[in-house]
Amino acid sequence: MIRFTIETSIKGSKGRAGTIDTPHGKIQTPAFIPVGTKATVKSLTPEQVKSLGADAILANTYHLYLQPGTEVLKKAGGLGKFMNWSHPTFTDSGGFQAFSLGPAFGRRLGKIGKEEKPSFSDTSSLPNNDGDAQENEESIMAPAKIDDDGVTFKSVIDGSTHRFTPERSIEIQHDIGADIIFAFDECISPQESYTRQKAAVERTHKWAERCLERHKELKHPKYSALFGIIQGGRYEDLRRESARTIGAMNFDGFGIGGSFDKEDIGTAVGWVCEELPENKPRHLLGIGEPIDLILGIENGVDTFDCVAPTRIARNGAAYVSQRGSTSLDLARWNLAEPAKHPANGRINLLNAQFISDFTPIESGCACYTCQNYTKAYLAHLFRAKEMLAATLTSIHNLYYLVNLVKNARKAIVEGKWNEFKEKTFK
RNA sequence: GUGGCUAUGGUGUAAUGGUUAGCACUAGAGCUUGUGGAGCUUUCAGUCAGGGUUCGAAUCCCUGUAGCCACC
Hints:
The longest helix has 27 residues, at 387-413. Strands 4-16-15-13-12-11-6-5 form an 8-stranded parallel β-sheet. Strands 1-2-3 form a 3-stranded antiparallel β-sheet. It has a 3-stranded antiparallel β-sheet with strand order 8-9-10. Helix 13 packs across helix 14. It has 426 residues and is an alpha/beta fold. The protein has helices at residues 46-51, 61-66, 70-76, 79-82, 95-100, 166-176, 194-217, 236-248, 265-275, 290-298, 308-314, 368-372, 375-383, 387-413, 417-425; strands spanning 3-9, 16-22, 25-29, 31-34, 57-60, 89-92, 112-113, 144-146, 151-154, 161-164, 180-182, 225-230, 253-256, 260-261, 282-284, 303-306, 317-319, 346-348. It has 15 helices and 18 strands. The structure holds one RNA strand of 72 nucleotides.
């Protein structure tokens, strides 16, 4: 089980600093949790992940269930022992994969909305979730069929058919054995209509009750903490209703899931956190970029996970401190016309300008990569498609985010939140 | 030296005498949010040189140049 204590709060906002005590150690919050989907943070050893400052990692139920399977995880003594990570662990429930590897697969659909809001009558071109997807030839790659009882999907590894229900997800997560596990939810595209978002919220709520029930049945002395998930897309009434409903259930903490307006992540998170009980930790699922972390913390989020730092690292991009923005209106920072801000807090190491740039990614950065390697070397490694490129850049990007959130925590504890924001994003 | 063959972006190639000279890789730029070591968008870039035939030439002819092959 876990214990959550709040140390300090930000004056005039919902943000707070605290500690989550788990059977495998403490997580000082707010915290950024690196993602290790298949029981590995891609390209990094657990020692590297720990030494860059991470307190915990988050793995994925869907992927581990398919490979290597729960029997192996059980025999290994659980996720942490299996991967030689002796610190706290999370597992995601697999609900999101029903979306990202199902109806959204190969469609360039993300969970972050960047277009105008759909009208309420909009019937998008997406297959609906009642079975039509099977008849749509576009969806043969990795279709998922969602009904009120659960999700039937095909393995992305070998095409075999599998079924997750809320109960099954909890059972699998118990076998994997993370300290913090998540309820099985339904996530849908931000382009979906209000009606469909509402239906997904209601289904997620029913599934939440079933997850809690199964979790209690499986309870043993060292059982995992279960977090319930809030849905509701970009709609305030749905988000608040979802937070009230899930918040009233007997979860150990909460996950904020689903789709957002890029411009409005902080606002949507704020709605949710206003409704949630204050004494339990809140995790923002799959977010995010540096700006999103700051907005999330300010609006009451305690922990984050996101694939972005390691994914963009593998593709040649590195986070750098923002320069040139004088706007303190963070919600509008660089977001009105992203195309006019190509740097946007990151650099692309594959750009020609770095071929002979013998300075670190960021001068003054204390990470292992910046202490020892130049952009010219990294540019070479990426062009040569050498594996070390991913490793070194992942170290920098994870350090950057983990450290950004650590500094945010420090600022909260010291009562210097506004100064921190100004200094970080000036 | 003689004869033959070949010559299209940086590389490899495609194009009945009529296409806006196509494709792939490379190169330049952008995208990536509960993982996708992937992918997508986009840009730059070419008919060896000089003549000729033709309404029209990458394509046919001549000369030159270069490379490859064969022969003394």
